[in-house]
């Protein structure tokens, strides 16, 4: 007699027959279960049949995955994967084009299942698809199905990409290079080339030779957003692979098409999530070529670097010919002028640039400002050198700190996050973003210094204000340097103080004791309101991305809480699908089995992917452990808001207090609104005992628009 835990109650469907409700004995061989089901419908040859899920991802049931079947699952009796593979293999070779088309279309669908893929590949079916592509005699629709099926088969990793022939690569590349071709063929061809590039460096070299960069750039300018995204994905793959081999090659590829991107970034709303991620990664990769300069201190023995330093001094001050001066006189004059420039060590200014970061990058930005805007540079230095000592704004010291701030804001030197999408549109409208931003911001710093009437002791305070000015302005997503310049200069010190005061009013406790008492009485009620909102949000569910370097669009999964708050349901989903129903999510975890909620570095997936960790990923990672903490469900939220909602909701389920910054902000907002409503001055304001009467309907409805007339 099997134990109760080995029995699963399920329903089995078959077209044209009444469903069978059975108790699946997990100890019994799957072949015996299928035989019993076939006997129930009087079907001969049970070896020709198999079971698969009827809802969601219609995976075949095998001995290796049968334990995933849960109570209440609906399965379907269908062709066995071997029989299906044999039928499709024959259908693809049919002389009837309609049969070939239908067979290839079905193949593209069922190849997502690894069990079928193994059967089809064991019959050398993938080679048959390769031959169809190499011959290239089929109609566009058949070719699209062929390429899609091939891509799905290869995605299982059963066959290595290294096995593809040079002829096949040339043919796929020709589909991408063609100026007029079916869009679906170009989309899947771009995806195939992306997988090749990511799989090995040798295939990267072949693809780079066959696909012209000019053609990929033109793909970014088409109206089809899917082709745009696939072309961007291939370009990113080329960048990523080139970066491992040669940083200069990587930088050259990225700069060659940066000028085209403003055409596809009309507004942040018009860019999809996947394209936003690619733009973010592209921004990070392109800016990271500055990392070597940022981490390299000045070399006192390097003649070129010393000449740049002295060039800064000579560009700022018109001095008599130094050659006619004695060594001591010339040395004294240089020290005096370096002091006016704002170097702390005026006798050896190179010592100020030993700090790395920003290292030599600070020297680069200062030199760029002096050469590109000589009048503004001279005005900055001379204006401050004529002030009293304690009120002068030190150019060199300010420039070094400002360069470091810009590096931190733009995340220069940090690897791109797997889930990041916070790119700056201004980056794609400017070739030398860091240098040009520096030129605007160093003049802003001088302006803010004067507005604050700062002294040397206020240096750190001024830099904090300037950082806030830059950060707030960039958060508004300016699309050009001119727009950034106008916005950041409008955000002067007085405006910053107003913004800070407004934000502080929401945080400071400036209420009278009776009001504070009322606030404490309201707090539990409003906390309960937030708890219910968090649980409702978990019941709606959220899409999460997995950590992966390949085919990001297919690495999605959905998680949601059951309406009775007792079970977490989750499972893989496709990018294009709508929000999945709770029944289609195959996996589930009882809330009662959850043991702990982990965040940041404590999460198992952060420990496993130490090489991919970034500050952003650590801030968005969380996990729940269950079954005596032996298993974990790992998340990476797409935003800080989702992170707060889910960690708060999971804390509520575990009977713990919510602790996120979003909860605190929402609680303060609700408390403020409720207290203001309670404290409204209603004196001499009559409050009726009954609701006001409903007004009479209008005499006519001529103001209504007649849609029927427009349709005629």
TrEMBL record:
The keyword GTP-binding does not apply. Residues 304-474 form the ELMO domain. It comes from the Eukaryota. GO terms for molecular function: SH3 domain binding. It holds the Pfam family PH_12. InterPro entries: ARM-like, ARM-type_fold, ELMO_ARM, ELMO_dom, ELMO_domain-containing, PH-like_dom_sf, PH_domain. Keywords: Apoptosis, Phagocytosis, SH3-binding. GO terms for biological process: actin filament organization; apoptotic process; cell motility; phagocytosis. The keyword DNA-binding does not apply. Involved in cytoskeletal rearrangements required for phagocytosis of apoptotic cells and cell motility. Acts in association with DOCK1 and CRK. Was initially proposed to be required in complex with DOCK1 to activate Rac Rho small GTPases. May enhance the guanine nucleotide exchange factor (GEF) activity of DOCK1. PANTHER family: ENGULFMENT AND CELL MOTILITY (PTHR12771), ENGULFMENT AND CELL MOTILITY PROTEIN 3 (PTHR12771:SF16). This is ELMO domain-containing protein. The lineage of its organism: Eukaryota, Metazoa, Chordata, Craniata, Vertebrata.
């Amino acid at each position: 007699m099997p134990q109760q835990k080995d029995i699963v109650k399920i329903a089995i469907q078959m077209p044209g027959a009444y469903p069978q409700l059975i108790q699946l004995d997990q100890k019994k061989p799957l072949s015996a279960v299928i035989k019993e089901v076939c006997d129930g419908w009087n079907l001969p040859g049970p070896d020709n049949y198999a079971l698969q899920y009827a809802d969601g991802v219609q995976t075949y049931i095998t001995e290796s995955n049968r334990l995933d079947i849960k109570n209440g699952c609906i399965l379907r009796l269908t062709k066995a994967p071997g029989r299906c593979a044999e039928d499709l293999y024959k259908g693809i070779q049919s002389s009837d084009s309609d049969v070939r088309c239908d067979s290839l279309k079905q193949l593209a669908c069922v190849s997502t299942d690894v069990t079928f893929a193994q059967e089809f590949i064991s019959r050398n079916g993938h080679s048959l698809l390769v031959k169809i592509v190499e011959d290239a005699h089929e109609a566009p629709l058949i070719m699209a199905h062929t390429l899609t099926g091939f891509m799905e088969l290869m995605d299982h990793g059963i066959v290595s990409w290294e096995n593809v022939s040079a002829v096949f690569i040339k043919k796929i590349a020709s589909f991408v290079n063609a100026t007029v071709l079916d869009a679906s063929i170009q989309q899947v061809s771009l995806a195939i080339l992306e997988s090749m590039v990511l799989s090995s460096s040798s295939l990267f070299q072949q693809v780079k030779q066959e696909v012209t960069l000019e053609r990929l750039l033109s793909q970014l300018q088409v109206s089809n957003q899917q082709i745009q995204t696939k072309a961007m994905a291939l370009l990113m793959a080329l960048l990523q692979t080139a970066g491992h081999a040669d940083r200069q090659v990587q930088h050259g590829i990225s700069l060659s098409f940066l000028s085209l991107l403003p055409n596809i970034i009309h507004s942040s709303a018009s860019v999809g999530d996947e394209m936003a991620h690619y733009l973010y990664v592209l921004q990070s990769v392109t800016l990271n070529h500055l990392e070597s300069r940022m981490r390299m201190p000045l070399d006192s023995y390097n003649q070129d670097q010393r000449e740049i330093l002295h060039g800064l001094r000579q560009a700022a001050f018109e001095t008599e010919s130094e050659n006619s001066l004695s060594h001591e006189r010339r040395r004294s004059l240089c020290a005096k002028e370096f002091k006016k420039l704002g170097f702390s060590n005026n006798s050896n200014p190179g010592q100020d640039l030993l700090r790395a970061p920003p290292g030599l990058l600070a020297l680069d930005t200062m030199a760029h400002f002096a050469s590109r805007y000589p009048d503004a540079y001279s005005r900055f230095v001379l204006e401050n050198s004529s002030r009293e000592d304690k009120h002068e704004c030190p150019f060199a010291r300010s420039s070094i700190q400002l360069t470091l701030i810009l590096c931190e804001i733009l995340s220069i030197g940090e690897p791109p996050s797997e889930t990041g999408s916070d790119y700056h549109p201004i980056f794609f409208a400017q070739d030398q973003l860091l240098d040009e931003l520096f030129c605007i911001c160093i003049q802003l710093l001088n302006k803010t210094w004067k507005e604050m009437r700062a002294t040397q002791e206020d240096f750190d305070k001024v830099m904090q204000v300037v950082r806030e000015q830059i950060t707030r302005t960039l958060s508004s997503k300016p699309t050009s340097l001119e727009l950034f310049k106008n916005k950041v200069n409008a955000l002067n010190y007085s405006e910053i103080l107003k913004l800070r005061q407004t934000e502080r009013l929401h945080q400071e406790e400036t209420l009278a004791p009776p009001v504070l008492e009322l606030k404490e009485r309201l707090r539990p009620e409003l906390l309960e309101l937030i708890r219910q909102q968090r649980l409702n949000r978990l019941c709606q569910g959220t899409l999460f991305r997995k950590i992966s370097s390949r085919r990001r669009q297919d690495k999605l999964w959905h998680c949601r809480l059951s309406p009775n708050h007792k079970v977490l349901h989750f499972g893989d989903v496709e990018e294009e699908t709508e929000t999945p129903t709770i029944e289609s999510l195959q996996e589930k975890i009882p809330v009662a089995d959850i043991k702990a909620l982990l965040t940041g570095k404590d999460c198992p997936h952060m420990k496993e992917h130490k090489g991919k960790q970034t500050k952003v990923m650590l801030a968005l990672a969380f996990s729940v452990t269950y079954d005596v903490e032996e298993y974990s469900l790992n998340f990476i939220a797409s935003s800080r808001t989702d992170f707060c909602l889910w960690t708060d909701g999971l804390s509520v389920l575990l009977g713990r207090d919510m602790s996120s910054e979003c909860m605190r902000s929402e609680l303060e907002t609700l408390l403020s609104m409720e207290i203001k409503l309670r404290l409204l001055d209603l004196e001499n304001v009559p409050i009726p005992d009954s609701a006001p009467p409903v007004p009479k309907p209008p005499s006519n409805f001529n103001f209504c628009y007649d849609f029927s007339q427009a349709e005629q």
